[in-house]
Design a protein that fits this description.
- This protein is an alpha/beta fold.
- The protein has two domains: 203 residues, Toll/interleukin-1 receptor homology (TIR) domain (Rossmann fold, 3-Layer(aba) Sandwich); 84 residues, no CATH class.
- Strand 3, helix 6 and strand 4 form a beta-alpha-beta unit.
- Helix 13 packs across helix 14.
Length: 303
């Protein structure tokens, strides 16, 4: 399955109409250029602070993991309107990651991106995962320290609406669960990148979870037993068989195990009704389906 097909299929339910964006975003974004493309992650950052270092490392790590990312210098076609592309991309992203650095709030566009992210979060299923890069969340909330000084010094270049809406967005984002770079292993940026990627992957994997009836009676012990087998260290591939008479819940148990293991694998596939499918279409059909589903399920791109 190619990138466009897998991404469109997976995120159709998450797309938001930009016509519903709050007026506090200043510009009503129009979906141009990218058409029906949707993104896993939108990266927002102050280029002069982090573009060539931390943001570049994070971007490349996300892309190499197979995550579809929007990054302004990689994703906007030449000649396209910047404002509509940026705000439209946020609306079409599942996750936004604002990298809030010392000079983040000195950029009118960074503030407008943040305002739109918080609007999308409040009005739908959009997820905002902030990174406080060498700044304290409390300084962002109260506009103090070097972050506050930078913001106040740039206010003369902003409209009053920019300032007021920006302040509210900064207050809201400072209260979200995210990462404070200096608290991750004494500022180890490589470890921070890995933590962010792991969290993003965990969120995106939920889109692939299979439907299983909640509060099933008696399944917990069976799931725990199989998980113990799965978690036992081994040097070779593991195969676990679930057998029993028809109708006792073998498929439901397999789905429950599959959902629990998703976060631990980049590629995965669940092939149901093997016997019936093989009889109708042959074994090669199932083999091809397995290959397609485990090859670049989440393809590359950037923010």
């Amino acid at each position: 399955m190619d990138k466009g097909q897998s991404q469109t299929k997976r995120k159709t339910a998450q797309k938001e109409s930009t016509e519903e964006a709050s007026s506090s975003s200043f510009i009503s974004p129009k979906l141009t250029g990218q058409g029906d493309d949707a993104y896993d992650v939108f990266l927002s950052f102050r280029g002069s602070d982090t573009r060539k270092e931390f943001t570049d490392h994070l971007y490349n790590r996300l892309v190499n993991t197979g995550i579809f990312v929007f990054k302004d210098d990689k994703s906007i076609p030449i000649g396209e309107d910047f404002s509509s592309q940026i705000l439209g991309a946020i609306s079409r992203s599942k996750i936004s990651i604002p990298i809030i650095s010392k000079n983040y709030a000195t950029s009118k566009w960074c503030l407008r991106e943040l305002i739109h992210m918080m609007d999308c979060k409040n009005s739908g299923s959009h997820i905002v995962l902030p990174i406080f890069y060498k700044v304290k969340p409390s300084d962002v909330r109260h506009l103090k320290g070097n972050f506050g000084d930078a913001f106040h010094s740039s206010q003369k270049d902003f409209d009053e609406k920019d300032v007021q809406e920006g302040r509210r967005a900064l207050t809201k984002v400072s209260g979200l669960q995210g990462w404070v770079s200096e608290k991750i292993n004494n500022g180890n940026e490589g470890e921070l990148v890995e933590e962010v990627v792991k969290k993003v992957m965990s969120i995106l994997q939920q889109d692939f979870q299979l439907d299983v009836t909640k509060h099933l009676v008696g399944i917990g012990d069976h799931v725990s037993k199989i998980r113990n087998w799965v978690d036992t260290p081994a040097n070779t591939a593991r195969m676990i068989g679930i057998y029993g008479m028809g109708g006792i819940g073998k498929t439901t148990l397999a789905k429950s195990i599959y959902n629990q293991l998703l976060d631990e694998f980049v590629d995965h596939s669940f092939l149901a009704n093997i016997r019936e499918t093989a009889q109708c279409n042959g074994i090669p059909y199932l083999q091809n389906q397995l290959i397609e589903e485990t090859s670049n399920r989440m393809s590359n791109s950037e923010c």
